[in-house]
Amino acid sequence: MLTFSELFEDAATWEAVEAQAAGFVSATEAALAGEGDGLKVREGKEFVVRLMSYGVDVDLTNSWFNVCASDRMLDIANTYLGLWSKLEYVDMWYSVPQPEEADRVSSQRWHRDFNDKHLLKVFLYLVDVDEGTGPFEYVPGSAPGGRYEDVWPWRPLGENYPPDGELEQRIPPGSVRTFTGAKGTLLFCNTAGFHRGGFATTKARVLATSTYSSPASLAALTERSYRFTGSLDELDARTRYALT
Ligand SMILES: O=C(O)CCC(=O)C(=O)O
């Protein structure tokens, strides 16, 4: 957990992402106030409105994509994963506030991501996120290799959503970390470990997200969310590898 400006010191990079988010938020709120036309949502996960979703064409003029494809981010992802990674998923999410008494669904519930046992997800908060804004939560030590790796262990296409209320019986109280944070908070996480989030109740949570994974996962278990339409000739070898 750090702040965006610790990693990207030039204000222009942040301002470009912020402007992109502002456009997304105003279009989303206008659609939500009307008939909901044009909102990008996935079945079963209607509480998250997406800026791009799957199958979009993108290039480096897309500000958040440009950040995700930057040397700074690829250095972190490739170092953490110990290989040249694939940038598999890039998007912004608007999590619509739910009634407090609503049941948690989908990724609002504890789960491990299916993609691989070692992957890196990024979340950049684009609003202040407090307890009522559906903060990201994580169980440190639950990723493969950690002390809780055997609690519903990660397996390809395994049982990655424990029944409601059962995780709390196997993980000691106090072991969950809740990532509230100001706008500009940047989280890096191996989501093969247990996590949940986006159960916003008081106000919408807006964030930018991306995922870096190994080429094996991309080939076997994961679909890339975008098509890169920029010029490949202008990219160095590992960036070209990450985006294609
Ligand atoms: O929305 C969140 O905070 C959690 C997202 C999540 O579970 C995921 O990206 O796998």
Descriptive notes:
With 244 residues, the chain is α+β, with helices and mostly antiparallel strands. Helices cover 25% and strands 23% of the residues. It is built from 7 helices and 12 strands. Strands 1-9-6-11-5-3-2 form a 7-stranded antiparallel beta sheet. A 3-stranded antiparallel beta sheet has the order 8-7-10, with no helix packed on it. The protein has a two-stranded parallel ribbon with strand order 4-12. A hairpin with a 2-residue loop joins strand 2 and strand 3. The longest helix has 23 residues, at 11-33. The radius of gyration is 18 Å and the shape is globular. The chain starts with a strand and ends with a helix. Bound molecules: 2-oxoglutaric acid (AKG). 2-oxoglutaric acid (AKG) binds at residues 107, 113, 121, 136, 191, 195-198.
